[in-house]
Write a structure and sequence with these properties.
Blueprint lengths: L2 H28 L1 H5 L11 H29 L5 H22 L5 H24 L1
Helix pairs in contact: 1-3, 1-4, 3-4, 3-5, 4-5
């Protein structure tokens, strides 16, 4: 299987990590009854960790579809090369690093790591965009 597709599969695993990390801390704050209920009640403001994990999750799900589409485009077009594989690995590694940085509230470096993940996506898309011109 192509490296890019393996990375995409691990990206799906990372998506679950984001979901479960966020809900774990939210449940710790609001309780199991809230988690298993209809969640209709008005909640107090989230603790800092709950908010950070929710924002990290939202950020991941804003960019994950772009990375997934990029990987599927180059794979479907048979445009994978060494650089698309490296780009996919750069994207995934940066996204793995991003989550704990956001959870810890690390400024600046977190943004740099996000930008590295965007560079990874650009590396994946490069051959598809070149083929378009």
């Amino acid at each position: 299987m192509a490296t890019e597709l393996i990375v995409l599969a691990w990206g799906c695993v990372l998506a679950f990590v984001h979901v479960f990390a966020a809900v774990r801390f939210k449940t710790r704050q609001y309780g199991t009854k809230w988690n298993m209920g209809a969640r209709d009640e008005v909640l107090p403001p989230p603790e800092p960790m709950v908010g950070r994990l929710a924002r990290a999750q939202a950020n991941f799900f804003e960019t994950f579809p772009i990375a997934a589409a990029a990987i599927l485009i180059v794979h479907a077009a048979g445009l994978e090369d060494r650089w698309t594989a490296i780009g996919a690995m750069v994207w995934l590694a940066a996204r793995v690093v991003y989550l704990p940085l956001y959870a810890m509230g690390t400024p600046v470096l977190r943004t740099v790591v996000f930008l590295v993940s965007v560079v990874g996506i650009a590396m994946i898309l490069r051959p598809a965009l070149q083929a378009a011109f």
